[in-house]
Amino acid sequence: MKYVQSVESVAIPEGVTVSIKSRVVKVTGPRGELVKALKHVDVAFEKVNNKLIKLYVHNGDRKHVATLRTVKSLITNLIKGVTVGYKYKMKFVYAHFPINVNVIEKEGSKLIEIRNFLGDKKVREVPIPTGVTCELGQKDELIVTGNSVEDVSQTCADVQQICRVRNKDIRKFLDGIYVSERGHIVEEL
């Protein structure tokens, strides 16, 4: 079944400016600027005023209309990123061998260095993308912060994936580094 016209709208809060040019969304706010290219998505944008953006799909089927909600979520994530930011906390879980984690700079790029995972001699390194900061919290905690939810969550996913237990029963060996808390840098009231 074809839908004649489907519409979603995104509200823009105070202090945030959104500019859309040829399906490249640029959001500027108090915490910085984020750019997202949506050229691959067949959605029409209309900036009604400085407080509202409308998204349209004309004559779309069910899956085409579903992309409308996805685009709306992507834009609201950009707006939330430049206003309050994203903060993920990761906990180190180990039974016997303590996991050592450091944030290092190597050849001009920052890395998360993981040592002694399950007693391995192998040093695991995860690159930190630009715009993301990682710091060690209190005991056995890594705090990953940034404006882009995609970059922050992908960094956490890379850390968790590199510390997977292989060739052992994962019900018994629960060692690893896992996301324990998701939140915002600027706490909302």
TrEMBL record:
Keywords assigned: Ribonucleoprotein, Ribosomal protein
Gene Ontology terms, MF aspect: rRNA binding; structural constituent of ribosome
GO cellular component terms given for this protein: cytosolic large ribosomal subunit
InterPro entries in UniProt: Ribosomal_uL6-like, Ribosomal_uL6-like_a/b-dom_sf, Ribosomal_uL6_a/b-dom, Ribosomal_uL6_CS2
Organism domain of life: Eukaryota
BP GO terms, sorted: cytoplasmic translation
Pfam family, one: Ribosomal_L6
Domain Large ribosomal subunit protein uL6 alpha-beta: 12-85, 97-176
PANTHER family in the record: 60S RIBOSOMAL PROTEIN L9 (PTHR11655:SF16), 60S/50S RIBOSOMAL PROTEIN L6/L9 (PTHR11655)
UniProt similarity note: Belongs to the universal ribosomal protein uL6 family.
Protein name, per record: Ribosomal 60S subunit protein L9B
